[in-house]
């Protein structure tokens, strides 16, 4: 980084870059959720299962977000690990109507937490208990228990119930995240 | 390959239109530009960032891709990093798979960038490394690319399509198909071209999907942009080339309409009309169109000299173009023409001589090799001088091409052999890798047999070479050759020193070969026998077993031979050259050498490769119990045929092949080669299949099997091919049926030739979709009646049963309905009963066979050219050409009739009867009609067989 750039960053002339990776089982609503966060929602062509990953970048709250939307299908899950390095935050999306697969989600979360790029960092983790609008959805507290989130002690985490279609709950989660990021800038 | 070629073209045409496309070549400029920019802006740049790069350092630096700040704020640095990576890759640096994975995932993070240059580099990188990367990893970019295909940025759309085409599998293609279709008619030309080019490359893997885009491609054909037109046409041609009618229609449509990019590929059927069109295209203002037209003309099947001339003139101009691509293209086309019409391009000689010093080595090599084809006898010396300086500057692979060209030249001007072989020998002594040295050695050896005059000097050159040769394989090969040929030269004693030096100085393998070689001299030249025996005795103490063994055997055998001087007397009185120590002909030598000596002198009666196959077949037939136990003798081995890579084509294709990849040419022409190769998938040896069938065991051993003959078009519902297996008294017609209809199943397929002597048939029980199966018809042949060509009409009878397209299983209650499918006729010609088998020494066998069973005939044939006549006769007789007589010596003059050509052919007729043929072909002219006169002499032990063979000529 050139000297000018360094100064610019220090003086706040350039916006802060936040890279975020979004993971979670397939069909949990990651892509839908990100589409909802995006400021210009014009380009919403129908959501199809993601193959591999997609990148979105946009500015929000004086932060430049780059979001990696990973595919949740099982054949891609092992590739998530390649994207944890040097991220500022991790978002984990749960489909809280899928009680049966909660244990699979927990396994994937465990995998995430023990990944070398994650385990020793204090990257904040935001968990969305998504699809809260649907009947039979678990509450955020239920999810927290099922995933045994309390054990996470070395990094900030938060769970937020959300509806990716309407955007309900998402802003609350992101505000929490923005605070954590600004605090560390 | 084609997509690269397309890339190259679109670069030429596309630069003015906006974004440069995605090729390494295109990026080189980019790099240069970037480099300059870095200098001025960052000032942190060393002299050349790409000099002496360390892989580890670069990989370390590439971690920057993980840093969002770097990627967003310093795209130039990332570009430079990718350039470094690509530089390493193109330099041949190897990456371990974990390194590739790491870098690959790093690069995928660049999708977040909005910098055009960086995005382009990223696409390029993914495209280049896609093949080297684990396919399971590569698919991770699919969604990102799909998103880019719908982006509003032209650059993203164009490049993402190209990358996707590289990485996608046919299952995934369905999901993105509609976007590609859309892109074909994109208003941006680069996007449209990219989509079309991707179609061309996808065609190889998913032809059916691509064919569905016909409407869009047709529309692209009328695009105002020439590049788009060109790519559309190339794709259309690719999709339709199997279908002659469609191509004709396409060409007519194009020539009528005013397509501005007239780059059609042509076909004999419509050549005339198309020629005029092409000829007019030579005056087009766009030079690429001109080039393609000229190239198309040069590659027209059966094009005549007069028609070539305008195209050659255009190409001649291109030879002095400042653009290397044009020079290369023109040179490459001319070099192709040189193979068929050397005289047509003599007028370009001057330009080509200038090109020898072209900075581009590919162009220079093509120029040299072409000149070697077109050069006149008088220019040989001058050419050789020019080449010697040139040879030191080029890589071995190019040198090999030159060596092959020199061989051709020498065959053409045998009088020049001294200069030419001398030239080759010089390079034998200079630096060079094994392949290069081997190529030279092979050429010299080949020339020795083609031009006997070169024998003695060449032997000396070779002996000289092994004095200082680091390649064991070459040394042993040459020692063997010297042993075989040296004794019959004018002064055999001269070689002994060279050979014995090897016994003293070399490694065990070479020593062993040298010992065998010495023994041959001793056996054949009685006067040398005592002194060689002394030399051989020294090897009895050699440290290597093999050398000792060979020496022991040789000494033992030599001792059993009569001593020099009294040999003639012992061997019987009919020798009339009393004291001549040198035997000109091995035939006469027989009398002198004892029974034991032939162990040492005579090689195997067939090549090792043939022997291996013959023994393999022998074992097969024994296993299946088809043959009664026979002792394993040369005479009882099954006949195996030579695989024929004709020497002539070998030479020419070798000359053009290594260069093909270098430049890629401009357009679609190359794709023509593909279908023939693709439509003949390698099948398991049909003979081996046959032996597995118990019903056929009683027929005995297969004498020979013909090449498969297609009985249907290659793109029909059922593709049927027929292989004829010839047995001593039977013929088995082996129909292989390929089912290409997805939801049908054939049961009880069988085909029936309407011939009375059908003795049995084996139908095929069921044939599912995309499977190939065999059914057989057994014909008996009355062995006492002469073989005559017969034609059978065939029909495929079968029941069609509906089945589940997924599982391929027949529907539960499906009865099926019987159906017939007409096939082309199967012809059983006399030549089918002939196996192409080489005899070692044609002249000798000819004499031995004697004139008792000889048949002489004279025919007037329709051929107008000698090469066609030779090919025709080979086809009629189905025999193996000997002594390189299948190749016609170019005459060097185009005027007048060529001198008559002599063919030597050998073969084995059914019933294991060896047949030899000498044929003389002469082109004659009477009252403006050109024809061909064939005089043929057929020899075999059985006059009936000779007669049948002579009757093969039609
Ligand atoms: N009712 C309801 N449906 C949702 C919600 N979020 C997502 N969906 C639906 O769930 C389906 C899957 O959403 P995606 O965004 O494709 O899921 P994903 O996690 O990206 O899936 P992969 O890309 O395969 O990993 C879509 O049909 C969405 O409309 C939600 O909060 N409520
Ligand atoms: Mg998704």
From TrEMBL, chain A:
Residues the record lists as binding GTP: 24-31, 72, 130-133
Pfam families, per the entry: Arf
Superkingdom of the source species: Eukaryota
Gene3D superfamilies per record: P-loop containing nucleotide triphosphate hydrolases (3.40.50.300)
Coiled-coil ranges from the UniProt annotation: none
SMART domains membership: ARF (SM00177), RAB (SM00175), SAR (SM00178)
GO cellular component: axoneme; ciliary membrane
Single annotated GO MF: GTP binding
SUPFAM superfamilies: P-loop containing nucleoside triphosphate hydrolases
Bilayer disposition of the protein: Peripheral membrane protein
Cell location: Cell projection, Cilium membrane; Cytoplasm, Cytoskeleton, Cilium axoneme; Cytoplasm, Cytoskeleton, Cilium basal body
Keywords for this protein: Cell membrane, Cell projection, Cilium biogenesis/degradation, Cytoplasm, Cytoskeleton, GTP-binding, Lipoprotein, Magnesium, Membrane, Metal-binding, Myristate, Nucleotide-binding
Full protein name: ADP-ribosylation factor-like protein 6
InterPro entries attached to this UniProt entry: P-loop_NTPase (IPR027417), Small_GTP-bd (IPR005225), Small_GTPase_ARF (IPR024156), Small_GTPase_ARF/SAR (IPR006689)
Binding-site list for Mg(2+): 31, 50
GO biological process, one term: cell projection organization
Automatic annotation (TrEMBL), chain B:
Region ranges (Disordered): 565-592
Residue ranges annotated for the Clathrin/coatomer adaptor adaptin-like N-terminal domain, each copy included: 54-558
Subcellular location(s) per record: Cytoplasm; Golgi apparatus membrane; Cytoplasmic vesicle, COPI-coated vesicle membrane
UniProtKB keywords: Cytoplasm, Cytoplasmic vesicle, ER-Golgi transport, Golgi apparatus, Membrane, Protein transport, Repeat, Transport
The UniProt record lists the keyword Cell wall biogenesis/degradation: no
PANTHER family, per the entry: COATOMER SUBUNIT GAMMA, COATOMER SUBUNIT GAMMA-2
Compositional bias ranges of the Acidic residues kind: 581-592
A Pfam family this chain is assigned to: COP-gamma_platf
Membrane topology designation: Peripheral membrane protein
Higher taxonomy: Eukaryota, Sar, Stramenopiles, Ochrophyta, PX clade
UniProt keyword Transport, yes or no: yes
The Coatomer subunit gamma C-terminal domain, residue ranges: 831-953
A GO-annotated cellular component: COPI vesicle coat
Residues spanning the signal sequence: none
Sequence ranges assigned to domain Coatomer gamma subunit appendage Ig-like subdomain in this UniProt record: 687-829
Molecular functions (GO terms): structural molecule activity
Summary of subunit composition and partner proteins: Oligomeric complex that consists of at least the alpha, beta, beta', gamma, delta, epsilon and zeta subunits.
InterPro entries in alphabetical order: ARM-like (IPR011989), ARM-type_fold (IPR016024), Clathrin/coatomer_adapt-like_N (IPR002553), Clathrin_app_Ig-like_sf (IPR013041), Coatomer/calthrin_app_sub_C (IPR009028), Coatomer_g_Cpla (IPR032154), Coatomer_gsu (IPR017106), Coatomer_gsu_app_Ig-like_dom (IPR013040)
Protein name per Swiss-Prot or TrEMBL: Coatomer subunit gamma
Superkingdom of source: Eukaryota
């Amino acid at each position: 980084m050139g000297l000018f750039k360094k100064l610019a960053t220090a003086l706040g002339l350039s916006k802060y870059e936040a890279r975020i990776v979004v993971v979670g089982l397939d069909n949990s609503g990651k892509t839908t959720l990100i589409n909802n966060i995006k400021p210009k929602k014009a380009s919403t062509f129908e959501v199809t299962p993601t193959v591999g990953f997609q990148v979105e970048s946009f500015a929000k709250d004086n932060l430049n977000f780059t979001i990696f939307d990973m595919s949740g299908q099982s054949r891609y899950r092992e590739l998530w690990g390649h994207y944890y390095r040097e991220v500022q935050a991790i978002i984990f999306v749960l489909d809280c109507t899928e009680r049966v697969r909660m244990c699979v989600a927990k396994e994937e979360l465990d995998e995430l937490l023990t990944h070398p790029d994650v385990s020793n960092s204090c990257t904040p983790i935001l968990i969305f208990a998504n699809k809260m609008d649907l009947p039979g959805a678990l509450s955020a507290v239920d999810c927290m228990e099922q995933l045994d989130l309390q054990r996470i002690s070395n990094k900030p985490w938060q769970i937020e119930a959300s509806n990716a279609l309407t955007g309900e709950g998402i802003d609350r989660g992101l505000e929490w995240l923005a605070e954590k990021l600004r605090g560390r800038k | 390959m084609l997509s690269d070629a397309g890339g190259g073209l679109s670069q030429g045409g596309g630069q003015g239109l906006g974004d440069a496309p995605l090729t390494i070549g295109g990026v080189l400029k980019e790099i240069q530009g970037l480099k300059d920019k870095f200098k001025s802006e960052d000032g942190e740049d060393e002299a050349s960032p790409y000099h002496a790069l360390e892989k580890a350092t670069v990989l370390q630096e590439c971690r920057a891709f993980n840093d969002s700040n770097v990627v967003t704020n310093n795209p130039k640095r990332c570009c430079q990093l990718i350039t470094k990576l690509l530089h390493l890759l193109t330099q041949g640096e190897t990456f371990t798979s974990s390194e590739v994975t790491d870098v690959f995932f790093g690069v995928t993070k660049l999708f977040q960038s909005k910098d055009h240059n960086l995005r382009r580099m990223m696409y390029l990188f993914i495209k280049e490394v896609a093949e080297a990367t684990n396919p399971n990893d590569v698919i991770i970019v699919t969604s990102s690319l799909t998103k880019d295909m719908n982006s509003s940025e032209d650059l993203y759309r164009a490049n993402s399509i190209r990358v996707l085409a590289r990485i996608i599998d046919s299952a995934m293609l369905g999901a993105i198909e509609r976007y590609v279709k859309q892109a074909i008619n994109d208003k941006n030309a680069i996007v449209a071209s990219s989509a079309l080019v991707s179609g061309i490359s996808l065609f190889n893997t998913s032809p059916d999907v691509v064919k569905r885009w016909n409407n869009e491609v047709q529309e692209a054909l009328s695009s105002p942009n020439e590049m788009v037109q060109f790519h559309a046409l190339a794709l259309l041609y690719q999709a339709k080339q199997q279908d002659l009618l469609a191509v004709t229609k396409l060409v007519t449509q194009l020539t009528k309409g005013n397509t501005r990019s007239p780059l059609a590929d042509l076909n004999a059927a419509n050549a005339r009309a198309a020629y005029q069109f092409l000829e007019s295209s030579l005056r087009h203002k766009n030079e690429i169109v001109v080039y393609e037209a000229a190239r198309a003309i040069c590659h027209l099947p059966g094009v005549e000299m007069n028609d070539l001339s305008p195209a050659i003139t255009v190409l001649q101009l291109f030879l002095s173009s400042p653009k290397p691509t044009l020079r290369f293209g023109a040179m490459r086309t001319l070099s192709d023409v040189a193979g068929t019409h050397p005289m047509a391009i003599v007028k370009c000689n001057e330009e080509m001589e200038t090109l020898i010093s072209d900075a581009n080595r590919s162009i220079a090599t093509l120029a040299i090799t072409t000149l070697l084809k077109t050069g006149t006898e008088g220019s040989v010396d001058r050419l050789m001088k020019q080449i010697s300086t040139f040879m030191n500057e080029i890589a071995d692979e190019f040198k090999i091409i030159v060596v092959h060209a020199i061989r051709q030249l020498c065959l053409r001007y045998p009088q020049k052999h001294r200069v030419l072989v001398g030239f080759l020998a010089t390079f034998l002594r200079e630096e060079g890798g094994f392949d290069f040295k081997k190529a030279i050695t092979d050429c010299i050896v080949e020339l020795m047999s083609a031009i006997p005059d070169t024998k003695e000097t060449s032997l000396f050159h070779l002996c000289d070479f092994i004095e200082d040769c680091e390649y064991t394989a070459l040394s042993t090969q040459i020692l063997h050759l010297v042993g075989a040929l040296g004794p019959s030269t004018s002064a055999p004693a001269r070689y002994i020193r060279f050979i014995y030096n090897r016994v003293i100085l070399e490694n065990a393998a070479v020593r062993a070969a040298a010992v065998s070689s010495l023994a041959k001299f001793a056996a054949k030249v009685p006067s040398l026998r005592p002194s060689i025996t002394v030399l051989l005795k020294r090897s009895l103490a050699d440290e290597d077993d093999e050398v000792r063994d060979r020496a022991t055997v040789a000494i033992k055998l030599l001792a059993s031979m009569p001593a020099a001087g009294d040999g003639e007397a012992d061997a019987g009185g009919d020798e009339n050259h009393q004291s001549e120590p040198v035997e000109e002909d091995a035939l006469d030598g027989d009398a002198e050498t004892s029974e034991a000596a032939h162990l040492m002198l005579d090689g195997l009666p067939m090549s090792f490769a043939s022997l291996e196959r013959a023994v393999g077949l022998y074992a097969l037939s024994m296993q299946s119990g088809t043959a009664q136990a026979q002792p394993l003798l040369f005479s009882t081995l099954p006949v195996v045929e030579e695989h024929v890579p004709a020497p002539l084509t070998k030479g020419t294709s070798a000359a053009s092949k290594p260069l093909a990849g270098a430049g890629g040419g401009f357009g679609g022409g190359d794709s023509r080669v593909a279908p023939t190769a693709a439509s003949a998938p390698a099948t398991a040896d049909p003979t081996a299949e046959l032996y597995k069938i118990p019903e056929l065991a009683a027929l005995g051993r297969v004498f020979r099997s013909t090449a498969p003959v297609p009985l249907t078009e290659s793109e029909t519902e059922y593709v049927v091919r027929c292989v004829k297996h010839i047995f001593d008294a039977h013929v088995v017609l082996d129909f292989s049926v390929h089912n290409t209809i997805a939801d049908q199943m054939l049961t009880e397929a069988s085909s029936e030739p309407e011939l009375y002597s059908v003795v049995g048939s084996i139908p095929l029980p069921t044939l599912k979709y995309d499977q190939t199966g065999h059914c057989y018809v057994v014909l008996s042949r009355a062995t006492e009646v002469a073989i005559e060509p017969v034609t059978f009409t065939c029909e495929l009878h079968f029941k069609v049963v509906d089945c589940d397209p997924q599982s391929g299983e027949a529907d539960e209650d499906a009865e099926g309905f019987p159906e017939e499918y007409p096939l082309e006729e199967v012809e059983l010609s006399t030549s089918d009963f002939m196996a192409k088998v080489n005899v070692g020494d044609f002249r000798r066998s000819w004499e031995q066979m004697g004139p008792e069973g000889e048949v002489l005939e004279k025919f007037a044939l329709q051929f107008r050219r000698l090469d066609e006549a030779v090919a025709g006769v080979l086809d009629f007789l189905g025999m193996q050409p000997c002594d390189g007589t299948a190749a016609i010596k170019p005459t060097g003059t185009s005027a007048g009739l060529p001198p008559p050509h002599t063919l030597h052919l050998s073969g084995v007729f059914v019933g294991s009867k060896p047949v030899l043929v000498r044929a003389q072909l002469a082109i004659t002219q009477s009252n403006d009609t050109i024809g061909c006169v064939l005089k043929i002499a057929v020899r075999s032990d059985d006059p009936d067989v000779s007669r049948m063979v002579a009757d093969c000529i039609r």
